[in-house]
């Protein structure tokens, strides 16, 4: 259990500090984009790209170079979105107090079972410090408060929608469901998911090797491993992709939002299904997240339409 919470803490650190690690060594040696007057530096871009470049190694083919270019474009796009959100939060004077930050840090330490000394030691291992951690955490909290303010009131999940999802998950057996251990490859633009699938099926590479090399989604660096997920938590498109698969099988190519994807079914187990009352909250959360994502994407697109963005 302790190992698991420490891993969660590492994930929090990595997600918060991709752009702040080694800040004391930072040199602005180029500008890759200007967003409403704020800049994204080449250093920041290279820092984001570093884990991906490690997967390609030193020998890069022409095809690899094109894939790297496409991945770089997607990462830059996300960096621009993050900057626009932060700018909008500042504009609307979304306030994050020191008490808010200290409270979040205390929650992180408690959930990871870390003392103050252990916490500072983990920051040092990520090549950052408490001051930088707090500043990045401030931005993260501010962003989530803005998103909550702008998006939350526009998301409505009805009881009828919940009932429809529940009914769609019931089978003739009715009393069993599956928990599935999945691995995912989420392909960047410019990479042929069908070609990579053929290479996996033919044995030229394993699914895990392909995931480490190509995936632009969760599980990068760990063979695309998503862990064990409850069947009811998966979107219908995932249900369709997994339909008929046996343990070890690879799905056909399907879409996750706008990206092509592959799934590998590592294992599954059948469990007694919960009642509608027991499942309602889980279904509600899944539907809420799906609708929230759609509203959030619309919100971002409108901000980008108003923004002055110059890509160097």
From TrEMBL:
UniProt-listed Pfam families: Rotamase, SurA_N_3
Classification via InterPro entries: OMP_Chaperone_SurA, PPIase_dom_sf, PPIase_PpiC, Trigger_fact/SurA_dom_sf
PpiC domain span: 177-267
Key words of the record: Isomerase, Rotamase, Signal
KW Magnesium (keyword) present: no
Single GO term (MF): peptidyl-prolyl cis-trans isomerase activity
Residues spanning the signal sequence: 1-23
UniProt keyword Isomerase present: yes
Coiled-coil boundaries: none
Name of the protein in its database record: Periplasmic chaperone for outer membrane proteins SurA
Upper lineage: Bacteria, Pseudomonadati, Thermodesulfobacteriota, Desulfovibrionia, Desulfovibrionales
